[in-house]
Amino acid sequence: MPQTIVALSKRQLDILQAIYESMEEQGYPPSVREICALAHIPSTSTAHNELKKLNKSGFIHLEQEKTRALRLTEKGLQALREEGLLMSGRGHHPLFDERNAPHIMERSKVRYAPIVGKVTAGVPITAVEHIEDYYPLPEHTFSGGDIFLLRVEGDSMIGAAILEGDLVLVRKQPSAEQGDIVVAMTPDGEATVKRLYWRERTFHLVAENPAYPTLILPEVTILGKVIGLIRDYEQVVL
């Protein structure tokens, strides 16, 4: 009978099972927050530590510690089989086979966009310059250039149907057209989501909510153009 070399804790087995079930049901791995919910882990830092251990022991493959770019290895599947945590006839899905992984990725045409922090829509706050997580998107989304996601705080863009808690999908570009919705950095280093206009050598960052004044500035740095959004209705503040 095959033996798992490294003894796994119940929490680690729960994590492996959460990854397996997410891949079976959705076709892509869970985020760290989803892992916390599925495996009953109290904090994301604890989940990250457990993922690092599982990666080091060879039960998962974690690409540069990207939670959305992980997969179970054959060793991880074997651990679930030995514990009786795979349903009969399951556990041989080609998505989990290391030898087939490159071909599956080619067929699924999925890429992972980084969630790089938060942007306030309203009273600007400094954007957090680190990657919080990764989100799977169809490969064609990236055809126009690099993509990243930012979470919106505030309600200044409600007229454009951008709500607090939304993830705005942003294409990196240093310029934009009149009236485009952009992520812009002001001279004092604050990032915000606004509609862009320029008049008489000044930039106007216009809210889509009459309760917020227009920001009129001599210069701004365009971080990218908003081309879409992702809404989690459990995160939206109404």
Automatic annotation (TrEMBL):
Catalyzed reactions per annotation: Hydrolysis of Ala-|-Gly bond in repressor LexA
Sequence ranges assigned to domain LexA repressor DNA-binding in this UniProt record: 7-69
Main EC class the enzyme belongs to: hydrolase
Keywords of this entry: Autocatalytic cleavage, DNA damage, DNA repair, DNA replication, DNA-binding, Hydrolase, Protease, Repressor, SOS response, Transcription, Transcription regulation
Active site: 156 (for autocatalytic cleavage activity), 194 (for autocatalytic cleavage activity)
InterPro entries: LexA (IPR006200), LexA-like (IPR039418), LexA/Signal_pep-like_sf (IPR036286), LexA_DNA-bd_dom (IPR006199), LexA_repressor (IPR050077), Peptidase_S24_LexA (IPR006197), Peptidase_S24_S26A/B/C (IPR015927), WH-like_DNA-bd_sf (IPR036388)
Ranges for domain Peptidase S24/S26A/S26B/S26C: 114-227
Transmembrane intervals: none
GO molecular function: DNA binding; serine-type endopeptidase activity
Site features described as Cleavage, chain residue numbers: 121-122
BP GO annotations: DNA repair; DNA replication; negative regulation of DNA-templated transcription; proteolysis; SOS response
Residue ranges the UniProt entry marks as DNA-binding: 32-52
EC number: 3.4.21.88
One Pfam short name: LexA_DNA_bind
Family: Belongs to the peptidase S24 family.
Function: Represses a number of genes involved in the response to DNA damage (SOS response), including recA and lexA. In the presence of single-stranded DNA, RecA interacts with LexA causing an autocatalytic cleavage which disrupts the DNA-binding part of LexA, leading to derepression of the SOS regulon and eventually DNA repair.
Quaternary structure note: Homodimer.
PANTHER family from the UniProt entry: LEXA REPRESSOR, LEXA REPRESSOR-RELATED
Name of the protein in its database record: LexA repressor
